[in-house]
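dumping this here before i forget
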Amino acid sequence: MTRINPNGPEAPFIPKGVILDMDGLMLDTEHLEMLIYVEISAKMGWPTPETMLYNTLGVTDNDSRAFYKKQYGADYPYDEIWEAVVKEEETKAETTGLPHKKGLLVLLDKLKVLGVPLALATSAYSERAQWKLGRAGILDRFKVFACGNEVQNGKPAPDIFLLAAKKLGVAGNECVGFEDSPAGLLGLASAGIPSVFIKDLAEPPPATLATVWHQCSDLEEAAQLFG
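structure:
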């Protein structure tokens, strides 16, 4: 991977753009969605264990649908289950909002002071992504949005990250991408974009971790990379 900092990977620097994933990286939503999915799928007569859901972290809706239908058969009611999951999450969010991951505002404030433009790169579709960012109070922080409905190939393909960099008008290797999922990290590596890994639910295999530029315990720690 091209290193973008001539002073070495430990020295602080100012990238020309930062690309951020959403669920599990900025918003503490993935585990909640998984719990709701497990509950609703069981009620519908298609019990889907949480361990199975780890296989679709970070991937597009179409890829998730294809995965579950391959595992459970063509009759698996993915769309009905997911529609109910979204409705339940939206009901909860209307009263409690959507929780931030630790250090999110510290990172976003730091990048704002530095004048670094931000792009969202999420497998979620555009309408849902902007709703989530709005409920979390951070929609206005982003210059551009690259969403799952805008690319042919979802993560771990590089498409969504290349689109985000293109919308920013910045070369990929002059950006930094933030991800929590193995699929997202592989997509960033394929796009030639240095990655920062913040663990949420899944631990990437060693080969995937080998592509990571920096691993941080949370977003507050990651903010110290820049300056």
